[in-house]
Amino acid sequence: MTKQIRNPKPEKKSARGLRALVRISGFGLPSSFVIRTSDFYLPRSDDLFRILLLVTIGVITTMRTDAELSAFKQDLIDKGIKYCVGAYVDIHGVPKGKVVPVGHFEDFAKGSELYTGYALDGLGQSPNDDEIASVPDLDRGVQLPWNQEVMWYPADLTFHGAPYEVSSRVIFGRVLEEARSMGFTFNLGIECEVYFVKLENGKLLIPNSDDDLMKSCYDVKRFFDAYPLLNRLATTINGLGWDLYSFDHEDGNSQFEFDFKFTDGLSMADRYIFFRFMAKKYAADEGLLATFMPKPFADKTGNGAHFNMSLADAKTGANLFKPKPGETDRYGLGLTETGYQFIAGVLRHGRALCAAFAPTVNSYKRLIRRGAMGYYSWAPVFNSFGTNNRTNSVRVPMGGGRCESRNADSSCNPYLAGALALAAGLEGIREGLDPGKPQVENLYEFTDAELAKRGVEALPKTLGEAVEAFEEDPFTEKILGSALKQEFITYKRAEWEEYHQTVSQWEIDKYARLF
Question: Residue 117: is its pLDDT beyond 60?
Fold first, then answer.
């Protein structure tokens, strides 16, 4: 377990000094924001990562007065709220938190709830460390649709009053501020794929015996067989204001997809965490399991969580990936130079990013050409980009104006994956990178030698290989910091080794009587 980094000789920084650091680093300091210095310590004055982390996320805070918090609480009471939850996530993107009666809302809003980080996966603490605290994002609360007495808030973590550097949501916020300093906002849409199944005697079963087509994608009859559950989810999504624009029966039996409108990156990551939580609740009400396991069945398609990404002008909101009339589009895919450069950055670090996009042992049973399926898997296995061509890991959908990372799956931590994908894209823009010519052919049909001739690199084939790529790329530490990077490596390597040391039923069937 990686221990919390401590500062043997704290150096306290003044607000004046911090404002200078903000100016030096290129970050603006709106007049409506203030700096709290009572708990601001840095171990080294030249530690730029921590300076930017503290300045951009936690030390700069929108202050609410006690009177404002009291009014906020009264509004909750008027809505019938009895309890509040500040939900942060562990290294896996699984929400955690405490339930606080609304009568203690003011303390809750200021970070009263403390947690022993060692009790959770990937939060960088040992049993002797002081507690971390959760601070709810009051601008992004959701009144639970199925229990109107509870208000859910996504939350950041702090340690001794400062942003906690092993919190993936904190890191994503820092990268989003870096994008804003460059004049960008990050728009993100995550496609939500899920299987609704029964779990009996350790086996996953399709609950509808009639949902057995080899190619069940877009099937209307099987969609309406599951209509009560699907309608409840769809109605709730729209009731939350997420603007659902499409949902359908996906390629696997009892697999479905929900697509709602893109929004800013942090809000979309929050919504994806909440969607998984909500889908599990609604499925359980029907006696089913909503599984976000990337590959529940060897002979069916996996659960993706494709990241649809673009940058907008921070002032005007204009899509900076969409060419204006007459603007040069070097590859004719409906993208600007900014868009192509962003893709090039993602591809530069594509193998390392794969560990965050596809973070489980099971993920790599999805990232195959065909396997046990009766036809191609639809999943990417190449670190490549191209047109409306689903054999690439990065696709430019028809019409352009955005790019889609297709190796992201339903088990990902969207804050961690979002931070790395955005940072890689920003690097591509800063350095003016070129992604090369788009791949337009069915890459599944090419041999390894033919792919090498085209300059097409394979994505990692196992979690172990992905973690190695993640560890070897200095970019991941630059963005995440050493503590969070090491936590991810520690937990994911242990996950891979645990799997590798397990004797499976396949091995018993294959070898027990062979020799």
Answer: yes
d(CA 474, CA 18): 27
Report the pLDDT value the prediction gives residue 448, as an integer from 0 to 100.
86
How does pLDDT run across 233-287, given as a tens digit for each residue?
Answer: 999 999 999 999 999 999 999 999 999 999 999 999 999 999 999 999 999 999 9
Q: Tell me: the pLDDT tens digits for 332-343?
A: 999 999 999 999
Give the list of residues 6+ apart from residue 308 with CB closer than 8 angstroms, or none. Answer: 188, 189, 190, 191, 262, 397, 402, 403, 404
Q: Do domains 65-164 and 192-303 have the same CATH topology?
A: no
Fold for the domain defined by 192-303: Creatine Kinase; Chain A, domain 2 (3.30.590)
Single-letter amino acid, residue 310: S
Superfamily of structural domain 65-164: Glutamine synthetase, N-terminal domain (3.10.20.70)
Residue indicated by tokens 């960008």:
184
Q: Looking at residues 363-387, what average pLDDT do you find?
A: 81
**Which residues have CB under 8 Å from 214's CB, separation 6+?**
374, 375
CB-CB contact of 268 with 192 (8 Å): no
421 secondary structure, DSSP code: H
**Residue length of the chain:** 515
| Distance between CA atoms of residues 365 and 411, nearest Å | 13
Task: Reduce the DSSP state of residue 401 to 3 states and report it.
Answer: coil
Q: Phi and psi for 496 in degrees, rounded to 5? A: -65, -45
3-state secondary structure 457-511: EECCCCHHHHHHHHHHCHHHHHHHHHHHHHHHHHHHHHHHHHHHCCCCHHHHHHH
| Cα separation, 253 vs 207, whole angstroms | 9
What is the model's pLDDT at position 31? 33
**Mean model confidence pLDDT for the chain:** 88
Q: Please name every residue paired with 99 in a beta bridge, in sequence order, or none if there are none.
A: 85
Lowest mean pLDDT across 199-203, 374-378, 389-393: 374-378
Where does 358-473 have alpha helices with state H?
414-430, 448-454, 463-472
Q: Is the pLDDT of residue 20 over 60?
A: no
Q: Which residues contact 494 (CB under 8 A, 6 or more apart)?
A: none
What's the topology of domain 309-515?
Creatine Kinase; Chain A, domain 2 (3.30.590)
Residues 70, 76, 78, 79, Cα dihedral to 10°: 170
CA distance 470 to 467: 5
Residue 465 has a CB neighbour count (10 Å cut-off) of 17
CB 444 within 8 A of CB 345: no
Please state, in angstroms and rounded to a whole number, the distance separating the CA atoms of residues 460 and 366.
12
Give the tokens for residue 444: 């599944």
* Cβ proximity of 293 and 368 under 8 Å: no
